[in-house]
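Lesson 9: reading folded outputs for more than one chain in a single document. The general rule is that every protein is listed as its sequence immediately followed by its structure tokens, and records are never interleaved. Here is the first one.
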Amino acid sequence: MNRVVRSRRPRRAAGQRGVTLVELMIGMLIGLLAILVISQVLLVSEGQKRTTAAGSDSQVNGALSLYAIQRDIQTAGYGLTSSPDIVGCPINAQFGGAAPAGFAGALAPVFITSEAARILANPALPVGIGDSIRMLASSKTSYSVPTRVIPPGIAVNGLSVPVTASLGFAQGDLALLAADGVQPCWVFQITAAPAAMDVPRANDGAGWNTAGTPTQAYGDGSVLVNLGSLVDNRYEINLVNNVRVLQVSSFDAGNPGARITRDIQSDIVNLRAYYGRDTSATADGVVDVYDTTTPTTNAGWLRVLSVRLLVVSRSGQYEKEIVTSANPSWDVGATPATTGAAGCGGSQCVTIDVGAGVAGDVEAKHYRYKIFETIVPLRNMLWRS
């Protein structure tokens, strides 16, 4: 008898069941949620990293900007203020037969031009661009000591300046003749090596010694100041490709009609400067007020003892949320009185316009700002003999 053999399918083990569609969708959902969470963590972390890095850059930019200005202001008046009676004299100069454009108008250590005056002179500048500060000093690296003019003095268009000593003066140096702080002081260029008691000049129509100059005589007791090539630096914020940049423009003795300009730091959005003045009746050498009123007399200049500076830097990181809801406030202390300050608690505060005010630029509110300030004593005014 033949036996019929039937094939049987192997039984499926209980643990080998497949994944259902619902289980697959749940797994995908959990994976997507995990990716979303990880992505958000990475984005927040990266944003914080950029904010921190940009904040560090802003702090470095602000500190370096303040240091550059402070370093120059500390030397302001070097060689110029050792004879206090001539400080503030109106400067006369001719280059190529004409008064050089932009040449300093008076013999003084610093000049502050307020933001309002800058915008009045150049209406294209935006509000909040800040003040301008300019410093003057002799460029002589060894020493610059004014020397006295002795008889017979120098006449109109004189070619020889008799002095008590010519130490420090050299051919090619700029020199300045002054009688006091009221009469005009005159700039000329030394055209030959000085003798022991004589500083020469020669008529030069293309340079600093136009024929007929100086236009007044300087007699016994006048002063000859050694300017060297003259340090004349002006610090201010300007727009470069629509970005605010702190710049310094410097005097060029070979081409005084133009200035040499270079960038210091970008994203410096405001610069404020104040004269620190002694206004007491006894001239006790203590600053009583900070203001931007430029002195016009010798007595006024001798009361300027320091300069107060503020620099505002902006972070380069644009934040999604508003991080600066109002213009920052600068606490200048309860005393001395500061022009433009308003009471804030028991102190005085100056509002610094960075564009984040009520009617300001909405974009400005998405940046962070840092304030840097210092007070710079004018040591060459304090040490004058």
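And here is the second record, again sequence then tokens.
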Amino acid sequence: MTEQLHRIKALAAQVYPEVVAIRRDLHAHPELSFDENRTSAKICEYLDKWGIPYQAGVAKTGVVALIKGRNPEKKTVALRGDMDALPIQETNEIDYKSTNAGVMHACGHDVHTASVLGSAYILNQLKDSFEGTVKLIFQPGEEKLPGGASIMIAEGVLQNPKPAAIYGQHVFPELPAGTVGFRPGMYMASADEIYVTVKGKGGHAALPHRNIDPVLIASHLIVALQQLVSRNADPRIPTVLSFGKVIANGATNVIPDEVKLEGTFRTLDEDWRNRAHQLMVDLAENLAKSMGGSVHFDIHKGYPFLANDPSLTHRAIADAITYLGEENVVELDVRMTAEDFAWYTHHLPACFYRLGTASADGRFTSSVHTSTFNVDEKALETGMGLMAWLGLRELGY
């Protein structure tokens, strides 16, 4: 095992400068969900360069590549990297700052894509040394419902050949570069988008008795919905309901005809998720009616919960300790954030883990989804090497 580990680390070090260049190029040219045309072309360019066969145009911009070792039908393992960026204006002053106004790789998907490409290089160099096949999934649209993962699955990405397991990694500025984090079992929440229109009768704010005030109805509704969750959710089931957008487009002396609310509902239990949806709709309709108004309550059901396969994840932890040392592998807490990698976890054994991206001197700690997010690029060497190692270990390398 020691010889194989050293070979992977040596190849990761060898291709590291090129992977850094790839990541910086992707960072400078971010693209929004399902519009990752340049990103897709860049992936294909490197796969062509390294002689790795692939299929482009999956889920519009996705790319699926296969690296076949000896006896390729024996077993298949998949590695996934997402490609899309976010509608955020970057404020970092760096040489590879986003050149696309209002678009930024603020969630590290440039790192994910570059890492999987680095893993592809390593695996391709070793294809005569292992049995089985590694499927590389370059996935679009993680940031936008219904999620590129669900579309790729519907288009057959988990068939021909069918993976026995899949790995995904995600940048994590709460850990230093060179470290990773795992959590077996339930890890991340489902995520639903809520769009509410409260309708009343607008008019002069000085004459509220002649109006049906949708602002007042919406105010009661927000409070009531919070109480509904706190009084109906099993305390053992983490649940979050938050409203981040309220539009009441009246004026100091004008009550509007309607108010719009937008929020998110997240939990870790599917039965409670479905029951809560109905409870929220019923409460909203009854409350609005009791106050003389009406409501349109629209729930866009999003990603399911993400549960890491315990057996696969425990093996991954042991292999990560071998690769990085026990001090560089940590246990993660449950998170109420969501990821469309969750779709894969409902179809096959999966392991989604975190890649530390902060530097030892305290830089690169800005949260994801912020205009100042960036990473210590040493994480790329860890990311591509460990992902290749995990995949090969699962193939029995």
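What the second record shows: The chain has a mean pLDDT of 97.
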